[in-house]
Amino acid sequence: MRDNKPGAGGRAASMAANRRQGGASGKGGKRTPRRVAVGRTLAGVASFAILATSGVSWAAYHWISGGLNISHALDPLLGRGPKHLDGSVNLLLIGLDSRKDMNGNPLPDWVVKDQLHAGNSDEGFYNTNTLILLHIPADGGKVQAFSIPRDSFVETHNGDGSLQGHHKIKEAYGNAYEGRREKLSAQGEKGAKLEADSREAGRAATLATVQNLLGVPIDHFAEVNLIGFYDIADQLKPIDVCLKHPVKDRYSGADFPAGPQQLNAKQALAFVRQRHGLPNNDIDRTHRQQAFISSITHKLKTQGVFTDLGKMQGLYGVMKKDLVIDSKLNPIDFAQQATNLTGGNVVFHTLPAGHSAMQNNEQVQIVDVEQMRRLVQDAFHEGPAASPGAKGGASDSQSSAKAAPATVDVFNGSGKTGAASEELKALKALGYTEGQASNTAPQSHVTVTYGQGAQAAARQIATKLGVTAAPAPDAQIQAGHVRVTLGQDFTGATSASSATSPDRSSASTSSSDPSDDDYEKNAVTAGGVPCVN
Q: For residue 110, is it within any domain?
């Protein structure tokens, strides 16, 4: 483990140095090829699918859950932030780029050097190089999964909600880990407990950062590190994959022909780690991860592993050693919903990665946060989703289409006399059902919130009002109602001609940024062995 440097300046320097380990050698600040990335994560999905879909007996459940690594990092978030309006479940899969075991001991050299081609156990840090958010709908419909680009430059948070600043999203874990470790070490804590408590801070920070970034609740999570991926791949070998083109990469060790093929554990690591020589670099590597998950779940189902406890015993041993899950996750209760992870019922998306820039003396991806939120919320919230090609929080066709059914209530916090009544009349003229008009406390900006079943109308109205923030669900609002609260930036009553998309030029995107169309086109559908770059 790294030495802890005293004082704020020392800690900041240490954190900056450690964050760059994933892409720099640390010698004179010179960048080296990223040889370290991703395998650590996908075992989370495979392990979780094995656990949750098995339908094991009560005795088997106690045997399984009794040895699992349980985390309470999610607990503070459960009563804070966005809420569900239905019984859907969101699960965050965290792949940790750590070459340490659960107690903070270095992984064996035969794994790091021989199997991973990744230097030694001192490289890398506590970066979450893979973050995949799964949404399992309450009605048993298609599961939506979103991979978050690891270098997205966003506002990162600690578990208590306090801000870390702007960093790569993968660094939220390591920032919090180091801060907690320094504090606890000064208090005399050491060894495995110090490592465990520091990692809890990292997990909590990652969960808070993702929830704040995307504006959707996180109900459960699973975390796995590098050795977990290797162990899962070794248990399930051969791994079926398919490549569109032949590849050969000396950094990851990938050397594969085009077409369908079967891989051992070492080759599977190379398959999911390769980024050099691929047309879309990290994006293509993300698609490799998604294809691996699809292949694993397909294999587990077709070979009957989900219903055969004997076949699963070796995998359970891996899970107990390598997997961390949240304290609220009951595998048996969750099993009915988690069966949706198989049978071609999952669609994997990769959120747009934005464009490259230099921030904090390192290369980052400048992303459109509002676009990220919109894409996720369109898929996660109840009601009809906006068109994938939409640009302003709702599709352009929505803004001029027939008004979606909803009763609209308008509250005036703008300070302009009569503004609520004026706006309500305008919305009624556009086809919405008239609710109440009233005054409320002053606020700076116009906001739109909605009750169950009124999402489509809320998105239409937000677009007409030029509201850039995605409409938020509110369990306190009556079903079928939209609440518009006018702020000081309200400029006048809505008209049919005002239905234009909000300007997003301030999001620092470029012409090379992936469009919504690209995002949809590049989705990976699970249920077999998809062919990828």
A: yes
pLDDT in tens, 394-439: 333 333 457 888 999 999 999 888 899 989 999 998 889 999 999 9
41-51 as b/e, with b when 16 or more CB fall inside 10 Å?
Answer: bbbbbbbbbbb
Is residue 1 one of the residues assigned to a domain?
A: no
Work out whether strand 447-450 and strand 472-473 pair parallel, antiparallel, or are unpaired. parallel
Q: Does 470 lie in the same domain as 377?
A: no
Shortest CA distance to 263 belongs to which of 292, 283, 227, 290?
292
Per-residue burial over 139-172, b = 16 or more CB atoms within 10 Å of its CB, e = otherwise: eeeebbbbbbbbbbbbebbbbeeeebeebbbbbb
254, exposed or middle or buried, with CB in 10 Å at 0-12, 13-18, 19+?
A: buried
Pair (54, 170) in one structural domain: yes
- The CATH number linked to 435 is 3.30.70.2390
Amino acid code (one letter) for 198:
S
Per residue in 201-235, pLDDT (tens digit) is 999 999 999 999 999 999 999 898 877 878 888 88
**391 lies in a domain?**
no
Is the Cβ–Cβ distance between 225 and 93 less than 8 Å? no
Residue 511 clears pLDDT 60, i.e. is over it:
no
Quick one: tokens of 372? 């990220």
For 80, other C-beta atoms within 10 Å of its C-beta total: 12
Could you list the residue range(s) of the whole structural domain that residue 271 is in? Answer: 7-385+514-532
DSSP state, 115?
I
Tell me the pLDDT tens digit for each residue of 474-510. Answer: 989 999 999 999 998 887 776 544 433 333 333 333 3
